[in-house]
Every structure is written in C-alpha cells, then in structure tokens.
Amino acid sequence: MSEEQNMQTESAERGDNLSASAGPGAWQLRWVELGVALFLLVVAGLVIKDSLRLGIGWAEDGPRSGYFPFRIGLALAACSAWLLLQQLLRWPRLRSRVFAEGAQLRDVAAVLLPTTVFVAAIPWLGIYLAACLLVAWFMWRNGGYRWPWLVGLPLAVSVSLFLLFERAFTQPLPKGPIEHWLGF
Questions:
Q1: What is the pLDDT of residue 22?
Q2: By the 8 A CB rule, do 139 and 154 touch?
Q3: What residue ranges in 49-149 does DSSP mark as E strands?
Q4: How confident is the model over 72-109, as pLDDT tens digits?
Q5: CA gap 180, 171 in Å, rounded
Q6: In which region does residue 101 sit, left (phi positive, over 0), alpha (psi from -120 to 50) or beta (all else)?
Q7: Does the global pTM surpass 0.90?
Q8: pLDDT beyond 80 at 179
C-alpha cells in the first residue's frame, strides 16, 4: 500500500474528509496550509519591522520596547518558514485532500459574518445593544425561537452583562445611544 493510501485510510478512520471528488466550493488542504504559512510569515515580518522601529537592544534601565516582540517575531518567522517549506515539499501528495466542503464553509460563515457585524457595530450601538441583537439573531436563525423569546432573553442577557461589568466589576464597556439616553 502506498504512503498516500495509508494516509487516506488512517484519515478515513478518524473521519477526515480526503475525497478527491470534492463538491463545488471545496477548499483544497494544500492551498489553505500554504495561505496560513504565508499569512504567519507576513505577520512575523510586521512584528519584526515594528520591533526594529522601537529598538531591540538594551537601554540603561533594561530592554527596549521592541526587545521581546522582536524575538517573538523571529520565532514566528522561523516556524512559519518551516511550515511553508513542509507544505511545498508535500505539495504533490496533498493534491486530493480537502480542507472543507462548501456546506462546512457556509456553517462557518453563518457564525463568522454575524460576529463580524457585531464587532463592527459596537462603536455605533455600544456593546450591550450589539450583544442583544447578536443573541437575538442566533436565537432566531439557528434556534428557531419565536418573538417573545427573541425579545426577552437577549434583553435579559444584555442587562445581566451591564450589571456584571458596569456595576459588579466597575469596568465600563463601550456604550451606545441607548445607554446615553438612559443616563449611563
């Protein structure tokens, strides 16, 4: 049995998806791994560049601001370069491996996109209203809840978060127009 067949048999036993006949919208594993390795290499380069700007040596009072980030950037660059090299060496063997099918990517997008909208809405709506809308969205979209629950439970969650952070922990979080209207 060839090495690729062994890999496919072991992965099939684990439940991995290695199908060569991937459906539409499937992402090949080799492209995902290559993209992640390149992304990490770029991030490492940015960390190293900014650390050099801050200074990577020692001052009279200790290490400069870029001392530790520079070393972390070097380690990240070395690891991502190693991943990139491994990926390029295994490139032909990973031709038929599938990272994710279209349906799996849609499931990820169903969580990622609303969460991204939530984060983007915080400066304008405040974290509490944005959290209320996010919880209501997930309850409606994924849970199939009806209107009384879609109003009551997300509102209770937001009020609970407000009381926890603003009153119990005394840590102010970003507020929006509703909190300002209510005098907070």
A1: 56
A2: yes
A3: 58-59, 62-63, 98-100
A4: 999 999 999 999 998 888 887 777 778 778 788 888 88
A5: 16
A6: beta
A7: no
A8: no
- Owner of token pair 């907070």: 184
The overall longest dimension of the chain from CA atoms, in Å, is 72
Burial 139-165 (b: 16+ CB within 10 A, else e): beeeeebeeeebeebbeebbeebbeee
- Of the candidates 69, 75, 40, the one whose C-alpha atom is nearest the C-alpha of residue 52 is 69
| Mean pLDDT in residue range 152-164 | 92
Q: What is the pLDDT of residue 10?
A: 53
CA dist., res. 6 & res. 46, Å (int) = 40
Can you read off the two tokens belonging to residue 47?
Answer: 């960390």
**177 neighbors 126 (Cβ within 8 angstroms):** yes
Look at residue 17 in the predicted model and tell me its pLDDT. Answer: 46
Reduced 3-state DSSP string for 133-148? HHHHHHHHHHHCCCHH
- The CA distance from 86 to 144, in Å, is 45
Higher pLDDT among residues 120 and 175, named by residue: 120
Distance CA 87, CA 37 (A): 8
